[in-house]
Amino acid sequence: MYFNGPTAKSASFRICPIRPLAIPLSIFFILVFFACVPARAQISPGPLAKAHQSLSGTIQCASCHQFGTSTPTFKCLDCHKEVAQRLAAKHGYHAQIQMKNPNGKDCVRCHLDHNGVDFGLIHWEPSQKQFDHRLTGYILEGKHAGLACEKCHLPAYMVSEERALIKMKDLSKSFFGLSQNCVPCHKDVHKGQLGDKCLQCHNYVDWKAAKQFDHSKTRYPLTGLHIKVECEKCHKPDVPGGPARYRDMKFQACIDCHIDPHKGSFKQRCEECHTTEGWKKLLPRFEFDHSKTKYPLLGKHAMVGCAECHLKGDFKRVLPFGNCNDCHKPDPHKGQFEARPKKGECAECHTVDGWKPSLFGVKEHDTSKYPLKGKHVKVECDKCHLPAGKDTIYKVKFAACTDCHKDAHDGQFKAAPYRDKCEDCHTVLDFHRSTFTIAKHRKARFALTGAHAAVPCSDCHKVGAAGRTDKILPFHFEDRTCTACHEDVHHGEFKERMARRRADGTPQGCEACHNVRSWADVNGFDHSKTKFPLLGAHRAVKCGDCHKAPVGKKEIQFKDTSQVCEDCHKDAHDGQFAKAGKTPCADCHDSQRWVPSTFNHDTRTHFPLQGGHAGVACDKCHKQTRTVDAKPVIIYKQAPSKCTDCHGPNIGPLKSSLLQYANPAASGRTLLTEPLNLFPTLAALPSQPMDFA
Questions:
Q1: Quick one: CA dihedral 582, 588, 591, 595, positive or negative?
Q2: Which terminal residue of the chain, N or C, has fewer Cβ atoms less than 10 Å from its own Cβ?
Q3: In 146-296, which ranges are continuous DSSP H helix?
Q4: Which candidate, 117, 168, 124, places its Cα nearest to that of 8?
Q5: 593-615: buried (b, 16+ CB within 10 Å) or exposed (e) per residue?
Q6: 385 pLDDT band (50/70/90 cuts)?
Q7: Closest by alpha carbon to 482, among 456, 438, 436, 513?
Q8: What does the pLDDT look like over 321-343, one tens digit per residue?
Q9: H or E segment to which residue 382 belongs
Q10: Residue 282 — φ and ψ, nearest 5°?
Q11: Percent of the chain with pLDDT strictly greater than 70
Q12: What string of H, E and C letters represents the secondary structure of 551-619?
């Protein structure tokens, strides 16, 4: 035998063949050798683990190691009989991993010794918490899957036969000895009545459900309402606190479980009249005909069980049935109808065909203190008489609308003279169409006059008006000025004028210029008090013709409007009379009338109109035109000045009185030979005389 290396990790040995006759001698020399070696010398691969400390010492090697074999052989199963038993039965973890050489390398592959006292003999792969329990042959299912190892592997749950084989002193650290049956771990609540195969009825997920149990395979299959009965209702313990009984139960007759409610009045068996579908459901062959009694069973009464009326199964007792409340007690309406003529008799509103619907309709409601009219006719009963079972109130308040209806106006009409009387404005025919007329509005703080009388209510009373932020329509307006409803289209241009006070101290607002009859009527505005009084033709001009929106803006501007004619009026002469780029209209026209012109032909031209010319109309001489922007423009500064230009060459001799006009040069005047002060557009016209004949 050769030892290579001093430690357990590097120690290895080889067993060489030895002749049989030399074995006793070899053992002798080994013993002598061990006896002669000093105590401090070490021939063992290392100290044993704590569990094997009792085997320490050189003379104990043969307790675990078997010598004289060709391969390393160990005697693990000689001590660990619990493992040997599992392997023999082909059961458990060691059998599942298919150990082919339990006396050889298969054991030491997981359990290494000679590594010190504190070295663990069990090698978990990969760890104890990650151990695959399927390798043991017992799969953890349902609620078992979440349990910690120490919850099941306890000495108390070990089978006594296997526990005796376990060598481990601390049995709480052993994983042997458990059975795969339920009973060793779980208490048998059936006390052995149903055997030890719990999984025939139960499962790992829900122990109490017993879903696997099929009662139809027993001697008493469950039918009808018996299916819904809890197990413990029938399987009761024989003695209080004892185990439930599952065997040798009586079930041949109904009275084995049920008490006879008839107390022997009927000699027939229960099943001759009843079925398991329901105690109140009688078989068709049930021979008792209730129609031959003084009270035939009609409607819902036909479905009522006998015991509901014949209490305690006493069928000989005479029952009163003149009024509904002879049986139906107490009064479900708690006496609310006792003041009616029939003292609240149920038959006034109900029939035996069903408690609902009630016969008390709109017509019957007219006999009450509150007849239903208008929209109230279509209202469901439970909208006013709120369902609360026996606590439902039928005598409700109705003196005021707000007894039932929520104030939709949020208290705006609480004060006098309205006092929240909805009927002042509404009717039961239609809530949305108000009876608050214009005549009534005149009595309010804001009388409707003029155009206001034709405005729909919703235009003023709309969500978000009067400073409200909720969805309630406003009817109470503190600010009753025009701008409270109307936008100031002038954007503050007339705020000083609008702030002027009336005799009653209220600001004039928009009415400083406008009135409620017509917005376009601005007679309240006196233009004569402005810097530009309207005179002549200007009095008939619309405001918007002068007061227009500036370029790039939408608002009309009234202040700082130009007072110069040419800023409003287009130059009809195409610049013939322009001065410094603008034509001064006032030089020839005034605001009374555009025509006739105030132009003085005698003082402002070189051709005074005298004699026969004095009465000639302008367009008789000024006929030359030019088209500007698709309109003809008369040319004044190139009119012909010679007599022949207008009258032709054959005019005959002139009178002496006209010679001075025929020859203007003789009178000291200068003839017009070139255009005077003409714009480029007119200066470009041909200069030769034109024929106007």
A1: negative
A2: C
A3: 149-152, 160-163, 231-234
A4: 117
A5: eeeeeeeeeeeebebbbeeeeee
A6: very high
A7: 513
A8: 988 988 888 888 998 998 888 88
A9: helix 381-384
A10: -95, 150
A11: 87
A12: CCCCCCCCCCCCCCHHHHCCCCCCCCCCECCECCHHHCCCCCCCCCCCCCHHHHCCCCCCHHHHHCCHH
Write out the two tokens for 497: 């004028």
Query: How far apart are alpha carbons 279 and 258 in whole angstroms?
Result: 11
- Alpha-carbon distance of 566 to 577, in angstroms, equals 12
Count of CB atoms within 10 A of residue 132's CB? 11
Report residue 343 as tokens: 């003292």
Judge if the upstream peptide bond of residue 357 is cis by omega within 30 degrees of 0: yes
> In which residue are the tokens 């030491």 written?
108
Cis peptide before 640 (omega within 30 of 0): no
CB hemisphere CA count around 108 (13 angstroms): 15
CA dist., res. 535 & res. 590, Å (int): 9
C-alpha to C-alpha distance for 584 and 243, rounded to whole angstroms: 127
Alpha-carbon distance of 166 to 179, in angstroms, equals 14
Contacts of 432 (CB under 8 A, 6+ apart): none
Output the CA torsion 449→451→452→457 (10° steps): 140
Which neighbouring-strand residues pair with 12? 4
Q: Which two tokens stand for residue 584?
A: 């001064």
**Dist. CA 618–CA 678, nearest whole Å:** 19
| Residue 428 scores a pLDDT above 50 | yes
Residue 590: per-residue pLDDT: 85
What is the Rg, in whole angstroms, of the alpha carbon atoms belonging to the chain?
A: 63
Structure tokens at 623: 């006929």
Quote the CA–CA distance of 309 and 634 in Å, as a whole number: 119
b/e for 386-413, b at 16 or more Cβ within 10 A?
Answer: eeeeeeeeeeeeeeebeeeeeeebeebb
3-state secondary structure of 475: coil
Integer Cα distance of 313 and 590 in angstroms:
122
Q: Residues 493-504: what's their mean pLDDT? A: 88
> Token digits for 399?
């003196």
Q: What does the CA dihedral 311, 313, 315, 318 come to, rounded to 10 degrees?
A: -20
Cis peptide before 632 (omega within 30 of 0): no
* pLDDT single digits (tens) 666-693: 343 333 333 333 333 333 333 333 333 2
Other beta carbons within 10 Å of 497: 15
First to last CA, the chain: 160
Cis omega (within 30 of 0) for bond into 20: no
Please report which confidence band the pLDDT of residue 280 belongs to, taking 50, 70 and 90 as the band edges.
Answer: confident
For residue 632, what is the enclosing H or E element? Answer: strand 631-634
In degrees and rounded to multiples of 5, residue 525 shows phi and psi of: -100, 120
Encoding tokens for residue 689?
Answer: 């005389």
Q: Is the dihedral of CA 304, 305, 306, 311 positive or negative?
A: negative
Residue 415's alpha-carbon distances to 411, 419, 464, in angstroms, are 8, 5, 22
Residues whose CB is less than 8 angstroms from the CB of residue 574 and which lie 6 or more positions away in sequence, other chains included = 626, 628, 633, 679, 681, 682
pLDDT of residue 689: 37
CB atoms within 10 A of CB 288: 11
Question: Among all chains, which residue has been given the structure tokens 């030769």?
Answer: 688
Peptide bond into 17 cis (omega under 30): no
Q: What backbone torsions phi and psi does residue 294 show, to the nearest 5 degrees?
A: -75, -15
Tokens representing 100? Answer: 């082919």
Q: Is the pLDDT of residue 234 over 50?
A: yes
